[in-house]
Amino acid sequence: MSIVHNLGFPRIGAKRELKFWLESYWKGELPAEELLKNARGLREKHWLLQRGAGVDRVPVGDAALYDHVLDALVLVGALPKRFKLDAASLDLKGYFTLARGDATHHAMEMTKWFDTNYHYLVPEWRADTAFFANPARLVEQVREAKALGVTAKPVLVGPLTLLWLGKSKDGSQPLELIAKLAEAYVGVLEALAAEGVDWVQIDEPILALDLPAEWREAFAPVYAKLAEVRVKLLLATYFGSVAQHAALIAALPVAGVHLDLTRAPEQLDAFLPAWPENRVLSAGVVNGRNVWRTGLSAALVQLENARQKLGDKLWIAPSCSLLHSPIDVAQETELDVELKTWLAFAVQKLNELKLLKRGVVNGRGDIANELAASDFVQASRRNSPRVHRLEVATRLAKLAPNADRRDSAYPLRAKKQAAWLKLPLLPTTTIGSFPQTAEIRAARAAFKRGELSDADYKTAMQKEIALAVREQEALGIDVPVHGEAERNDMVEYFGEQMTGYLFTRHGWVQSYGSRCVKPPVIYGDVARPKAMTVEWSAYAQSLTDKPMKGMLTGPVTMLQWSFVRDDAPRSLVCKQLALALNDEVLDLETAGIRVIQIDEPALREGLPLKSADWDGYLAWAGEAFRLSSSGVDDATQIHTHMCYSEFNDILPAIAALDADVITIETSRSDMELLTAFGDFEYPNEIGPGVYDIHSPRIPAEEEIERLLTKALAVIPARRLWVNPDCGLKTRGWPEVKAALANMMTVTRNLREKLAATATA
User: Fold this and answer.
1) Over the stretch 549-567, which tens digit does the pLDDT of each residue have?
2) Which residue numbers belong to the known binding site for L-methionine?
3) Which residues are catalytic?
4) Number of independent structural domains in the chain
5) Binding site for L-homocysteine: what residues are annotated?
6) Do 331 and 437 share a domain, yes or no?
């Protein structure tokens, strides 16, 4: 009989329990054994929840304490050599040292998981990287599930995807390691088979990419090796079409294949006609990446068509792991009733799968009422007057062809900006946020509960802004920021003040480690009714003679870090966001804020997985960014910030953004990314991050000086800025002040050296 299975479940808990346990452990407040006990209880709760929702095969091994890629490295004994840690004896302290660093080790590099906002830890490969099967922790979880009566389907990151996601640290080719890595996977599969496991899900999302020939050719021998183990493999692909690899996949000795039919429904036609008789096809018909209710009627048609060919070899699933979805919309007791009916989170998606299974197995008459209800919801959303705003459409239609262009080219703008800014060589700034202290969070929570008046809340936030300005003055920061005390999240804060957005109370998803975000939902046309940041930035400017930098989140990031409506092109939604933000930029300039940063950390994340689609995306994304900053005077300096992504292959598009200054994350990669900017001869000003703010360690002056010296070898001093990697909201004031003090000391010393060299 056709079954329902799940590819993965959110790890953090309905109340973000895992986040708070992790942070208590890191502070030394929660013993290691308590953290492990609590984490086990949470994953067992999630297994039982899924079984109760009708999932026939429940994923096991997806509940990482920090990151599933890191867990995969532990599973195959491939920890970065520089840490001198043994995977077989790895304890919690060592595990989190890999993820977060310590006094003597930089954390592993972090970057985006395909085109999501989840960050994974980047494997480090060397020619002598050793592998061994280390399945004890996974086997233990299989036993836990079995003891609960749960049918476990272990989930593994596939060997080729694991290699692809890593970086060579010695110039060797990662693919040369595949034979040794495959042997370790065989050992893991043998251990699972010995536990009675019959199905293992093995994720190879790189099949959605344009793979080089040598990587495509590596699949057959690797999977022939894995097939020697008496366990059935379900090859899972997601995030895009894998139709271009249909012949390759058809030839692999796997018992089943999962296809993402929400991102690429058309790919089913490339597989079904020649589908092997005894192979399972897992149809991902419920979107694991977004929050909209599934159109059950359309999904059921897909499944019925597939079942005519497959019979009981059809499995039903979400498109990808539900890691990227909030947990339960039932918690949203304060959400607008109509809008709530449009949404489905992880629990609701499982229920949709159960309904679809009933419709497939028993016939659509068995779910006739549910289909009618689904059709009604789809129609109400499609026709709702709350979705469409005539004034937004009219404004877009009237845009001039060159509306996204500044008046003058960068060289002329730079002269006008330098004339009034009068900044020293190697000007210093920060990325925007300062510590979100317990006092800030308490005041915000009290204000939201109605326990703090508008006036008292404003006073509390002004006090925090004054503190941030005072500390920056004391440190000697050249271009200060107001610290963003009033902001809960860099996207949510702005979305709350725009039309077309809805907000949840409990719609959290994991970004990395204990970092959770609550993406807003774009359900309709976007506009900005009134100024959002001007009052705070103007107040901060009144406290200093230095140029205060206004802080905004850019249109592409507002798009990428939201759950986006699926009834309009993303390019159209992004342009609406750009116009709303442009209103804010112009209001900031009018208020005297003439240095404005428009953050776009998600620009690379939004890049389509297929290279054929890149140019189109980069064209509209670049236009949206430029549109958001258009109309300002040449003397107004526009900054942007990007972090934790690879930009080497889109540098022309980044240059085309035409920001006066770009700040980027470079410390975890040891300035590797900056080299690409130098080779490209990036024309404008640039601030490479000189220390990693996601690690609790305070960088030594020697480390910062080494990175800045490397930067000076690539970027001329007249165009080089000095700043941390990212915002400082997650750090405490003592470490922020110590780290920035070291940054300023190094900067002053280098200024003196440069001045001495210039006069010699």
Assistant:
1) 999 999 999 999 999 999 9
2) 431-433, 484, 599
3) 694
4) 2
5) 431-433, 484, 599
6) no
